[in-house]
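Worked example (supplementary).
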Amino acid sequence: MHRFEIRVRYGDVDQMGWVYYGNYLRWFEIGRAEMLRSLGRTYREVEDDLGVLMPVLEARCRYFHGARYDERVTIATGLLDHGRATMRFGYRILGEDGETCAVGLTEHCFTTRDARLVRPPAMLRDLLGLAPVVDDGLRAQLGA
Amino acid sequence: MHRFEIRVRYGDVDQMGWVYYGNYLRWFEIGRAEMLRSLGRTYREVEDDLGVLMPVLEARCRYFHGARYDERVTIATGLLDHGRATMRFGYRILGEDGETCAVGLTEHCFTTRDARLVRPPAMLRDLLGLAPVVDDGLRAQLGA
Amino acid sequence: MHRFEIRVRYGDVDQMGWVYYGNYLRWFEIGRAEMLRSLGRTYREVEDDLGVLMPVLEARCRYFHGARYDERVTIATGLLDHGRATMRFGYRILGEDGETCAVGLTEHCFTTRDARLVRPPAMLRDLLGLAPVVDDGLRAQLGA
Amino acid sequence: MHRFEIRVRYGDVDQMGWVYYGNYLRWFEIGRAEMLRSLGRTYREVEDDLGVLMPVLEARCRYFHGARYDERVTIATGLLDHGRATMRFGYRILGEDGETCAVGLTEHCFTTRDARLVRPPAMLRDLLGLAPVVDDGLRAQLGA
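After joint prediction of all chains, the assembly is encoded as:
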């Protein structure tokens, strides 16, 4: 799976002292953007050059261990599966000591700027054919 | 189900012109806090007076229709189910014209401030016995 | 000055237990949007009907007393002053017990959607002529 | 001045297509945390080991040019000045092509965990004596 490191910032943490649960979805967004970039294209190009948006149909996150302020976390991202008109990414968030903080998935469709559903453009389909896939451990944890 | 209205703010919306997908989890938090308040207690009291935290074990959201800037959305919240040591809330986000923007759930456990798992305190168990439950439509949509 | 109440949410508070300092600028945005609404129009209409944006040129905030989780805070908003091409709003954030949590200001210009500077449209100029102005105490605190 | 690069994420951008104005204060936080780290210590250590917090007394930001989605921005951070009980940092946010997106400052005091004002601990004072200072151009732009 593709790996990308980020650091937990002060504003990410709530008064429990752990990262606020909604912020993990932002990390998932970073994970899929950086995975795409590692394949040679960017989501900005998908939007700007192809005129295609990838809105989220579903997001899930299971939380195991809260990340803390200033911790260096790793976002591991892979393709979970795809149909003709949708695709799903899987994510594992790893803390500094390698333990799993959270796992999750997002499902996406493809639309034009005026929100009409379309098939994924060939460039994107080809690109995602090269994407790393989620490992079996993550697939099992996601039950999906 | 308990209903609470909020307004979409400028910073909530991304460049697609719809509410950023991670922000719905914040709305779920508002929904369960206000449902608890409507029953006569607050989550702040649960933390401060009982010393009990309710961290999130899992969150799911399915997105149907993006909410827009300045739209008045309704957060409908209900109890989905509970076990001896966990409980789940269900949520429906309704747009101004009554259509469903999103549905979701959160699962929670109960811990002390130093993160030891505990049973829910009696006050909270009694309170949640009075909570509105999710309607059958939402239960079916959540598949849970 | 125009007054609008909001409640501090869990995700707004950092691990110090006080509202994260950047979130006050979001409250200023809420304050000026609701002040405009109280005058009979909305910022959404300004953007959608007039095609005019009001980007922020400058923002300042002085912090006196941190707001806490679940606290009910009041955003007091007024017009600070305006020139031919810019205008400034002043804000006071009041805690539940009436003490001042923070004061601040934002300065705005007017642009088309493609970022060309324009004069404020007549509708907006007329409207803002009706806006409440900041009180002398706030003006002094802002030193502006 | 100390330089640190970050990338603009989807959720950072509002429907104007530019970074939401409140998010720059988060970047200032990143800038001062990373400047401190570059000097050999971390803000987490200041809080955890010394028991000292550095709450913000004032924040200012002037906006010149909005940063866009996926843009790589540089946060330049330096010490602006300090008194016996307070200190100020200055910041310049640079876009990918080197233009200035924004400049700003934050003023901080030093407190114990229970919010009593204290002098900065010697370790911190020594450390900040080594910190890069803001350049004259920034000082002039900040008018401070």
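Two points are worth noting when inspecting this output. Residues 23-38 of chain A form the longest helix (16 residues). Chain A touches chain D through twelve residues (CB under 8 Å).
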